[in-house]
Amino acid sequence: MASQKKFAVFDIDGTLIRWQLFHAIVHALGKRGHILRRTHDRIHAARMEWKNRNTNEGFTAYETVLVEAYLQALTSIDPADYAAIVDDVYEEFKDQTFTYTRDLVRSLKEQGYLLFAISGSQHEIVEKVALHHGFDAAIGATLEVKDGAYTGHVDTPIFDKKTALVTLVAQYNATYEDSYAVGDSSTDAPMLQAVTHPIAFNPDQKLYATARAHHWPVVVERKNVIYTLAPDETGAYTLR
Fold this sequence. Notes:
By secondary structure, this protein is an alpha/beta fold. It contains nine helices and nine strands.
């Protein structure tokens, strides 16, 4: 029986890539006229509400409007046109990475780790970005197609990333021993909890609370400075 290899699993949006690939695709759909003007105005209003930090749930509300616009646009766009948009977004964003996670990916790759990516963004672009950065496998959201057209149904791993991880671990005969997981939001918490070395990277409020409860390290990258917050035995963080 072949020996099991160690693995590291990464979220992509906001963790490896500095922006949200899904958001970029919706923006491109709007620029190319696949989203109605009134819908585009709703997206802009929600985005500004979030950017102005008027509520703690501004980003969630913004994403909700984006998802609605995206699903509406899918049913009227030709898959070939959609593929062209995905390619353009990939070319623009593929190297817009955080220094910390980019270097960690390279370091773990050199150490012989299997690299997995699990993301709520579209599988087509997640797979492209993952392959570009040397990952071994990726799972993203898949779009249902019938009779050559999108139905608007999306199968996403975002609400069950642990199951997606279990699938990849089994498929590649990997071991959880000395494993890593890196994510930035509460939906990443289950896969962080499954590994030996969880890292909450630029975490949202919910993931930060979970990280504190479990004494996980927190890493923050701001401009050109990287801060590592290490928990002590009481759960309090100290700058390292």
